[in-house]
Structures are given as C-alpha cells and as structure tokens.
Design goal:
The complex is a heterodimer of chains A (673) and B (302). In chain A, 69% of the residues lie in helices and 2% in strands. With 673 residues, chain A is an all-alpha fold. Classes of the chains: A mainly alpha (673), B mainly alpha (302).
C-alpha cells in the first residue's frame, strides 16, 4: 500500500511535464496541470512515506518491468527519511515556478523546465527506494541528467551552458565511479541487491568499495575538494532549481554514502577519521569561500558545501563510534547528520527561494547592487532572516538542534566510555570538532549578516533596488511553508525523535539493544522550553519597549552628524567581508585591482576584487589547458564527424573483444559459418 | 528556590554597578574623583523616560537588535551558576546553548547596525563579527578543558568542578584558560585593550560605533545588556580563578558579590594601565587567547 502510493508519486511526477509538451507554447494550462500533478505526487508520496513507518520495513518488491531491469524497491526508515524533503520540495518548487517561471514569459524553455523537474523528482524518489544496484543507478542517472537540463535551462546564456557542461562532466565522473563500485559489489557479494554484505570480505575489496563510494558520492554531495562544479551550477540555474539542487540533490550523495556504509561490514577507523576530516575541511573552507562571494546565489551555493561539511562531521563521528564501540557517538553523530540533512534541505531551499524572489523583483544577483529591499519586499526579507538564523545554527530555529547533536556527540569524547575508561586518543580527536564547529558558526553569522545587511537593510544602492517589487503569493507561499517547518523543528525538536530513532536503528542495527534514543541523550524538551521562552520574551520585551518609547521623530541616520550621506556611501558587502577575506588570504587568494589614487585632483577610479574557486580556477582549468596543449597532435583524429567517432567505437569494441577472448577462438567466431 | 531568586535578583540588579566600579577605578588612576558608583542606574532611568528617534532607513531589525540582545543575555545568565550554588536552569549540553545565545545576540546587533545604512556603523559591525570568529573557538577550547576536567557536559557542574575540587593536575590548564577567558571577556565586553568604551568617535571602533543611532529606551536596553554580559562572562571566569567556597550560604553570597566587584576593579586596572591596541593588532591578541586555551586543552588530554 505505502509502496503503491510512492510508486504512484513516481509515475505522476515523471509524467507531470508531458501534458505541457503536448499543449501549445502560449497556453498556461500545461503549467497548471504540471503543478497540480506535482502537488498530487507530493501528497501521495508523503502519505506513503509516513505510512511506511507502520509497515514492514524490510519488505522489498520487484517491479516486473524488464526494460528497466526489473527493479527491486522497498521503503525502509532511511529511504522514508530522505523521501520527505524530496517530495516536499518537489511539490513546493512546482508551485513556486508558477510565479517565478510562468509559461507566458518563458515560452522558449518553460516546458523543458517542467518536464525535467518532474523527471528529476521521479528519479530522486526511485533512487532512494531502490534496493538493487541497477535501479539505484537508473534513478541516479535520471536525476543527474535531468539536473543537467535544468541547470542549462537558459542555454542561450554562455554562463549557463558552461556551468551545465562542468556539471555534466563532474556528475559523469561520479557515475562512472559508481558503475565500477556496483560492479565490484556484485563481484564481491554475488548480486546487485543492496543487502548487508557478509563478514569476511577481504580488506582490499572493502577499502576499494569505500573509496569508490567516497569519490562517487562525494562528487555529488559537493564536499571539498570535489565541490568545483557546484557554485556555478547552483548559481546559474533558475532559483527553485537551485533550491532543489542545493537542498535535495546534494543529499543524494550523503544518502548513497550512508547506504553503502550501512552495508559494508566492520568498518575501519580510518574511514570515519577521513570522513570527519573531509567534513572539517568542507565546513571551514565552504563558509570562508562563501564570505568572499558577491553573487547572492553563488554565496548560498558555497554555504551548501559548508553544511555538507557539518553533515559529514556527524557521519564521521558515527563511523568512529562504530569502530570504537561507543554507541553514544553513533547515535548522536548520526542523529546530527540525519537531522542536518533535513534542516539544510529546509533552510537552504528557503534561502534560495528568497534569493529567487530578489532576482525576480530586482533583476540582479549582485549583492552590492541591492540594498534596502526590506521596505519594498517585507515578506521576502522576513523569510530570509528566518532562513539565515536557521543556517547559522542559532537558537531558536532548527539549525541549532542539529548542530547541538553534533556538538554533543563530539563532546562525548570528553566523558569516559560506558566501560569507565576515558575516551582515549580518538576521544580527544573527536572533541576537536567542537572548536571548529564554533568557528564555522561565527563565520556563518558574519556571512549572513553581510548578506542581510547589504541586500535587505540600509538604503537602495542602485535603481534596480529602488524599483524592486514584492513577489506574488505563489512564490511566497512555498517559502512560508519551509519557514514554518524550520520554526516547528526548532521549537519542538522532540516531535522528530521517533523518525530519527528509526533512521538510526536502520543504519546501525547492531545498536538496537543499547541505549539509545536521542531523547535519552539530549534533553530536547528543555531545549524546546528555552527556545519557546526566547521567542516569547523577545516578543514581550519588544512590544513593551516600542509602547514605552514614544516615537519622537523620524530623521536621517545620525552617523555622528554627517550631513550629506548618500546610499552609495554605505558599507558594501565586499568591505564588510574584507577583514575576514584578508585573514583567510592564504586560501582565498583574492584578486584585487586597486587603482592608485593620488595628486590634488585624482581622476575617477574604480576598485575590483574577486575570489576565485580554489579547485576550479587554480587547479583544474590551468592543468586542463596544459593537457590540451600537449594533445594538439590528437586533433587530426577529432574532426567533428560523427561517422568517424562511430568508427572509433567499433574499432575499440573489436580490439577489446579480441583481447578478452583468446585470439584463436576470436578468429573462429569471426569466420564461423 | 531561595537561592535561585537571590541569583536572579543579583543578575538583574547588580550588573550596572560593575561599570560604576570600573569607572571609579579608572578615575582613581587618573587622579579624578569620578562618576557616582550608581551613575549607570541614573542613566538607565533617564533613558527609559526618553523618546525614540528612528532613522528613515531603519526597519524592524533595528529594534530587534537591542531586544534580542537583552533577552539572550538574560537567558545565558540563567545557565551560569553563581558561586557554589546551582544555576537556575541547567541541562546536559547547556554550554552550547550558552555560547550560541551570544551568537544570536551578535547576529541581531550587527544586523541592526547595518540597518542604519551608515558606513561608520558598518565598520563596527564588520569588526564585531570578525573578532568573534576568533573569540568563539577560544571560548569552546576553554569549555572543552572544563568538560574534560570535570567529566560532565552541564555548565553548572563543569564550573563547580569534580567533587572535592579540581585535581592538582588541572592547575596548569586552568591557569591557561583563565587567561584566555579573561581576554575573551575583555573582547566581548569591548574594553581596553580591544576597544575603548569611553568615546564615540575615532577611538571606539567596535561596540559603541554599532549603537550610534540607537536612542532613548533602545539605548538604555543596550547599555543594560552590555553590563549584564560582563556580569555573566565574569561569573564564568570567577569559577575558574577562585573556586573557593565557605560552606555557609550567606558567606558564599557575600563572597560572590565581593569577587565580582574585585573582577570589575581588575578590569578597571587593565583599562588604566594599558593603551588600546591598534585595530589590526586585535586579532593577534585573540589568536593568543585561542592558543592559550588550545594549549590548556592539549595539557588535559595528553
């Protein structure tokens, strides 16, 4: 029954774009039908996901569909956990598209966008319910390819095409690795089924599987240093697509990693250590690079790298706990990891939808060209503040709860194990996560204060900001739903404990007997009381103060009596970030063009600064250019004629066959009557 | 219950006195008589009766700044124990809430400063968030040391130390984090050598500059919340410096108040004998504090 609902959701989502393709370009009906079909798919799928908690979670069903390799599907707690954000955002994004990408104004690419939106949601859903390697890869590729078409929606812009190509290359490198991984998986376990592998797998195979999973899924998750494709792809896609890519699609890398790690027997401590280390690097560098950006959506994209880092820290902690037999590390780390997956998909989608409203209202993504939008777009500003407080991990919103869990997991290193001994060296290493997380938090605050200050507060810097307008209800409503989710999880974290517990029990079945519900390890009830007290007190004190202070006057900003300020004199986002950019000079390497201003009457001058991506612009592009130079001679084989390429393929296949089969047999087969 | 009420009363009433003590100390050093000890109380009473001048550019965020700061600092104060008494609220992991409440306050204070659209206030706000990136890890290192030494994750028990007092082996790390925490206290409450709270213009470059445009009750709330913050961070520091208890409740309360006053005198002395650092040197001081706390951490885990 629950599976039926979810499969219905897959079919509905996959076909949601078709009516639009069949209808005329000028008709709005295709979009409305697609929206309702997506909402229906979301309702059905969410219903199925909720229902799955009552049903038998180990059951799997084979779908008798030979063309797709008879996929085996099933919904366990881990699948259901990831289904929630996918379907929620799938439905909300379709509603958002109604105002953001209306067919009437985007006749050229509106139909394409909706077709691939539906396909991507279907692919994502199939991916998380897949129980064998082949259907997993099928879902993975449907997702990855639809995402490519979505990123290059505006393919008449060179930037979008370029972002799309980089994304396509990156995702296919990942897919190739996954093909290799599943082939090895089949060789080692005897089937493609995603069932826990038996103990006694050889060390080399286990390590190979782990590192291939880390590479393939890490590329998709965008962990440093495999994040290079992410900023431009997420910045150049339409905003609800960016929300989906950042909020949901990245998490599929995490899902894949979680799934594989739950199947591999007796993990090595080095795996957990490596994941933890990569998490620390991604978290710290992600936020530092975000601070250097001046494109609103690029900045948000880098924050995804940061949050993936936090998620990986939780996962690394859980893995180390499995090796060190510290169930409380596993429970807290994994709970932090899982909850941050949800939270990040909520607040990052919220922020991208708000950024979309800004782009929609002011027609620019440049932070330094905006300003004062809170007055013309009060809803968007308020929603953005909610998202920003949440992503900084501040109480009373949801980001705080998941970061609290990761902190608690890492601080457990300070306490003795249940055997009574101290945490040992592993414990001390794990504890070091706490100061790093503190620094990430402080940097995130700096980054989002910069964004809010430069985009929404102060006065408008350009005419684009003056003429901005609030977005329609169809765009605000999805953002409001996400904001409410953030607030509810922040104020009542106890409500999601059962879902987390089920996910943890599913991931680490060997822990089922030992303590541990999250609720026993972290007093979420008290946290919730404090959060509610915080909100209530702020509201009460605010009302009392505003009542008490009769408003004497509205005047210009005093600013120590400066008489003629202009809006262009405001502190810009770049100046705000400058101290931190200088502090992290060693990794950011900002490019500055600073004119010399001298003499009595200096001429007009302008200053320019830009932070390049560390991997893309400083490693991949230069080395790619060098490789290209050394392969100039190869151009004679690459003339651009398709027939030639097909010939190459044929030759390659024949050569491969002739080498795989003994030569005599090959000749015999070739010339057999 | 009575303990809690006494503590909450102290928390809400005593902080402005600390600034009076600091000012008196500085005046003595300068050979002046100085303001009355209770000057800040008079100022607060006056400000609360005044009207509110708002800038044309501001929005609700401008009002949220002081309000959120006040509420978060009071809540953070409720998590910290005074002397040997238990804190009014305590639970496992409250140390993280404690640190993050200050983060929330910073978020809204700095955003409120940017809301005025003034470059000057923007500078202050940029400095505040930058320096926090160094002082927050320092504070967490210090909290890690306390967690490791006491073996709990509750702020109250961490600060009280293990039963029977801190062990002798914990002395060196505790000295390290005491110095580190003192620097964090000076930076977070914007005292010399990090910031000079006495002037409004060129010399005061972090906190005071952010609140230039706040007036009337909002300014009152800001001043009050700043003194509360000093009280709360001071209470944390006192546990590390002087973990002395007499065992008699009334004597312990008196001791706590005296210790707090002595801390204010110490801050006043530092402010009198030192000059404010150049702005570009402030990060070095904070990094030093972070390193000290980090070394303290290494000493406890070795």
């Amino acid at each position: 029954m629950t599976l039926g609902l979810i499969l219905a959701a897959v079919v509905l989502a996959a076909t949601s774009g078709l009516p639009g393709v069949l209808l005329r370009r000028s008709s709005d009906w295709g979009q409305r039908i697609a929206m309702w079909m997506m909402v229906g798919a979301a309702m059905a799928g969410l219903g199925g996901a909720i229902g799955s908690y009552g049903a038998d979670q180990t059951a799997t069903t084979a779908i008798p569909w030979l063309a797709a390799g008879s996929p085996v599907v099933g919904v366990d707690a881990l699948s259901a956990f990831f289904l929630f954000p996918i379907l929620l955002m799938g439905g909300l994004g379709a509603v958002y598209g109604l105002g953001y990408w209306p067919q009437s104004r985007h006749r050229g690419n509106g139909r394409k966008l909706r077709l691939f939106w539906g396909l991507m949601v279907a692919g994502l859903t199939l991916l998380v319910i897949a129980r064998d390697g082949m259907s997993f890869l099928l879902g993975w590729e449907v997702m990855a390819l639809s995402a490519f078409f979505l990123v290059s929606t505006e393919d008449y812009r060179a930037q979008c095409r370029e972002a799309g190509w980089v994304y396509l290359i990156a995702t296919h490198v990942g897919t190739l690795t996954l093909f290799a991984m599943f082939a090895l998986w089949r060789w080692a376990t005897g089937s493609y089924a995603l069932q826990p592998a038996a103990e006694g797998m050889s060390m080399i195979v286990k390590n190979a599987l782990f590192f291939m999973a880390l590479l393939g899924f890490g590329l998709k998750a965008g962990m440093m240093p495999l994040h290079f494709w992410l900023p431009s792809a997420h910045a150049n896609a339409p905003s609800h697509v960016s929300a989906m890519l950042s909020g949901i699609v990245l998490k599929m890398g995490i899902y894949g990693l979680l799934r594989m790690l739950s199947l591999l027997p007796s993990p090595l401590p080095i795996w957990g250590g490596l994941i933890l280390f990569l998490g620390v690097v991604s978290g710290l560098l992600g936020v530092v690079f975000a601070i250097g950006q001046h494109d609103l959506k690029r900045l948000l994209a880098y924050h995804s790298v940061e949050n993936i880092g936090i998620i990986l820290m939780g996962l690394g902690l859980a893995m180390l706990g499995r090796c060190a037999h510290r169930p409380e590390w596993v429970v807290l780390g994994l709970a932090g990891c899982l909850l941050h997956v949800w939270n990040h998909s909520l607040f990052k989608s919220l922020l991208f939808l708000c950024a979309g409203s800004v782009v929609h209202g002011a027609h620019t993504r440049e932070i330094d060209r905006l300003g004062g939008l809170a007055k013309v777009m009060p809803w968007t500003a308020g929603l953005f503040v909610v998202g920003a407080v949440a992503i900084c991990g501040l109480p009373p919103l949801n980001g705080f709860v998941s970061e609290l869990l990761v902190y608690m997991g890492s601080l457990q290193g300070a306490l003795g194990g249940r055997a009574g001994g101290s945490g040992g060296a592993g414990g001390s290493a794990v504890m070091l996560v706490a100061p790093v997380l503190a620094m990430i938090g402080a940097l995130a605050v700096a980054c989002f204060v910069k964004v809010i200050g430069a985009v929404f507060l102060g006065g408008p810097r350009t005419s684009a900001a003056v003429n901005a307008h609030e977005s329609p209800l169809s765009m605000r409503m999805p953002a409001m739903v996400l904001a409410v989710c953030c607030i509810v999880i922040g104020l009542a974290p106890m409500a999601i404990v059962p879902v987390l517990d089920a996910g943890i029990a599913n991931w680490a079945p060997d822990l089922r007997q030992s303590p541990s519900s999250i609720g026993d390890l972290v007093p979420l009830g008290t946290v919730s009381t404090m959060a509610i007290a915080l909100v209530v007190l702020v509201v009460v004190v605010g009302i009392v103060l505003v009542r008490r202070g009769r408003e004497a006057a509205r005047a210009g900003t005093w600013d120590c009596g400066y008489a003629r300020p202009t809006n262009r004199m405001q502190y810009s986002a770049s100046s705000f970030a400058q101290m931190i950019v200088v502090m992290f000079n060693w990794v950011l390497r900002p490019r500055m063009r600073m004119p010399h201003v001298g003499g009595l009457f200096p001429p007009a001058a302008n200053m320019h600064s830009h932070v390049d991506d560390a991997i893309m612009d400083r490693v991949l592009l230069p080395s790619g250019r060098r490789i290209e130079h050394s392969f100039v001679w190869f151009h004679r084989f690459q003339q651009g004629l398709t027939q030639h390429y097909v010939l190459y393929i044929l030759i390659t296949v024949i050569v491969m066959l002739s080498t795989l089969i003994p030569f005599g047999e090959f000749l015999e087969r070739l010339f057999a009557p | 219950m009575l303990e809690r009420l006494i503590y909450i009363a102290l928390l809400l009433i005593m902080p402005p006195l600390l600034l009076g003590i600091i000012n008196r100390t500085k005046a003595r050093f300068a050979g002046r008589t100085g303001q009355p000890l209770f000057q800040l109380y008079y100022d607060l009473a006056k400000l609360m009766r005044k009207g509110l001048v708002l800038s044309n550019t501001t929005t609700w965020v401008f009002i949220a700044g002081p309000v959120v700061t006040l509420v978060t600092v009071v809540l953070a104060g409720l998590l910290v124990p005074a002397g040997p008494f238990a804190s009014p609220i305590s639970f496992t992991g409250d140390l993280i809430l404690f640190a993050y409440l200050f983060g929330l306050a910073r978020f809204f204070t700095t955003a409120a400063a940017l809301d005025t659209g003034s470059a000057f206030e923007g500078m202050g706000s940029a400095r505040e968030v930058t320096f926090a990136c160094l002082s927050e890890p320092a504070m967490f290192f210090a909290l890690l040391v306390l967690a490791k030494v006491s073996g709990t994750l509750t702020l109250s028990e961490m600060l009280h130390g293990p039963a029977g007092g801190f062990p002798a082996s914990a002395v060196a790390p505790l000295v390290f984090i005491a110095i580190g925490l003192f620097v964090v206290l000076l930076a977070e409450t914007c005292r010399i050598p990090v910031d000079d709270p006495n002037t409004h213009l060129e010399l005061t470059m972090i906190h005071e500059v952010m609140v230039l445009d706040h007036s009337g009750p909002l300014l009152g709330v800001i001043l009050y919340a700043a003194s509360l913050k000093m009280f709360v961070l001071g209470a944390v520091l006192l546990h590390v410096i002087v973990p002395i208890q007499t065992g008699m409740a009334w004597a312990d309360w008196a001791l706590f108040v005296i210790e707090m006053g002595a801390l204010a005198v110490a801050i006043g002395v530092v402010e009198s004998v030192m000059a404010r650092l150049q702005m570009r040197h402030v990060p070095y001081l904070l990094v030093a504090a972070m390193l000290l706390c980090g070394f303290g951490f290494i000493l406890v885990v070795r």
